[in-house]
């Protein structure tokens, strides 16, 4: 019979008094150096939490506002206008401006590409024909998940209202796409502020770590590249809700996040493993069912009313080939082996490529599940969450550059080592420059593909290094900075300081005796 696992040591909760906060200027050389212009590291006898206004959260939010402002200025070059042939203002994308100025944002071309600029259109109902009059003509619909599509449509309606106010003389005027971008950017900025707030509130003894989210170089480059800050806000909010022992709210936010981008749904996998180990499956079931219900509540009306348009997102993702940023393109380019695209024929689904990506991701998930059940101490939620999302990005056939934003809040919660995280984020953000000049084309003095893919390899190695460090912290909990400061799992909610009831050791599952389980509760 399986032997009963060793009793896991569970300490008493640590006080959340400001005096017991973990101070980065004491634990991180980077933070200590950055504090010198402001008086240096906090003194040993400093009175913390006494200022009437400036708290770590408010400082982080202020830093985020500054960072988002700089990010907007980085994209502003792509919403400039010039007088057209008839004197009408037009969007100035001449001479490869989006790539030379590195200001490209999907938000700008999608305004017309998704027919949002046309009156009477509605996502998933409105269709159009690409390559009309050719053998490659194809009927198209809105290609984004439902909440992302509706977000774009609402912003287009707000743009119409703004332009009407401008014509009446009440508001400043601009070309429609510039107004649309700025309205979208406002909501995307608010979503990133929510992400910063949620990270600070999740680990309340380490609120200063949220400053890494606030000033992330990835945010500076990609806050307005696409609509991913909406997904990070829902995902980070779901983690916060779970940490506060509110599984239904966590499930609601995760389900809504999955209706924006798929990745928040991946967080339910690590939660399942941890809840099985801690005997908290009921809380996970509540969260999972609520997430499924929230996703269905958003998607079902559109799916029933416009089934063909609703399936467009899934169709395009199934038929899509390997992305330039993907591992598969790197292998094909540097080895000269065309295998990944060899079975991709025009108009057909790349079944082999899709199968390879699915198998690799599921294999990674199986390994992460084993790690979660076999670790000497139950891993933290953020640790497994980061590993799963990173595994998806590394094995997926598409890694759009803004997807790296998904990792930022999870990385800060999982591995709060400032120099390491800042180094990775700088490397990841720098991929944007060679990517833009690769798309500019060698004929226009752009970069060869090899230079761009070289930076992709460096980015992938950096993410793998973070995964390796997190796995080390899981296997050797004494190396984990969060646990070293006296916490167990700040994001764990019902898992925080719970005792294990099921562990996988030596090829068998070991279950705690009923008496021990009762004592743990």
Automatic annotation (TrEMBL):
Lineage, top ranks: Bacteria, Bacillati, Actinomycetota, Actinomycetes, Pseudonocardiales
Pfam families reported for this sequence: GT87
Family: Belongs to the glycosyltransferase 87 family.
A GO molecular-function descriptor: hexosyltransferase activity
Name of the protein in its database record: DUF2029 domain-containing protein
Cell membrane found in the keyword field: yes
Membrane topology field: Multi-pass membrane protein
Residue stretches spanning the membrane: 179-200, 212-242, 248-276, 283-306, 351-375, 420-439, 451-471
